Amino acid sequence: MARYTGSRAKIERKFSDPIFGQAKALQRKNYPPGQHGRGRKRKQSEYAVQLAEKQKAKYTYGLLEKQFANLFDKAARKEGITGENLLKFLEARLDNTVFRLGVAPTRRAARQLVSHKHILVNGEIVNVPSYELRPGDVVSVREKSKSLPIITDSIAAANARRFNWLEWDTSEMSGKFIVYPERDLIPEKIQEQLIVELYSK
C-alpha cells in the first residue's frame, strides 16, 4: 500500500509540531513551508482547522485516508466518546505498539520491522502493521532478529520511555499490551474533537 514518502520536515513545519520526532527542522525554520510560509498569517476557516487536525493525526500514525476513515467509523460505532475511541484504536495498532515499546526508533521503522516479519504476536509472526492488538496480547521480537542493530540500539535508547498501558521485558525482548490507554495517557497533541466535528459534517 502507498505511503507518504516526502519530506517529513515540511510536514512538521506545516503543523508546527515535531510529529516525526525531528525537532531540528522546527528549530531552524519555525514557520510554514513554501514560498510565502514566512509571511503567511491568514485566518483559517473552521473547516480548514478541522481538516488540518485530521491530516496531522494521519501523518502521525502513518495512515492513508481510507484506512483512517474506516477506523473512524469503527470508533463511532463503539460505545463511549468517539474521539477517544479513535485514538485508542490508533494506539492499539501493531506498528504503533512496536514503536511505543521502544523496539523501533520511529513508527516508520516499526512498520518496516513488522512488514519484514521481525515481530511476533502471541508467538506467531504477524506482518500486518495495522493489526489491532487486544488487551493481553504479547508482542515480541523474533529470535533471529534480536541482534539487529536497529532493534538493539532503539531498545538501549528507550529505557526511560515507558507507557502505563504496556509492559516490557528487556531480557526477553517482549512486551504486553495490557489495556487500551486512556486519553490523558496518550502523549500526542491531537485535538480529536475537531476530527469528530469534521466527519460529522
Account of the protein in words:
This protein folds into two domains: 8-80 and 189-199, Ribosomal Protein S4 Delta 41, Chain A, domain 1; 93-179, RNA-binding S4 domain (Structural Genomics Hypothetical 15.5 Kd Protein In mrcA-pckA Intergenic Region, Chain A). Strand 1 (119-121) and strand 2 form a beta hairpin. The mean pLDDT is 86. Helix 4 (65-77) packs across helix 5 (82-91) and helix 5 (82-91) crosses helix 9. The protein has a five-stranded antiparallel sheet with strand order 2-1-3-5-4, covered by helices on one side. The protein has nine helices and five strands, in the order H-H-H-H-H-H-H-E-E-E-H-E-E-H. The chain is globular, with a radius of gyration of 18 Å. The protein is α+β, with helices and mostly antiparallel strands and 201 residues long.
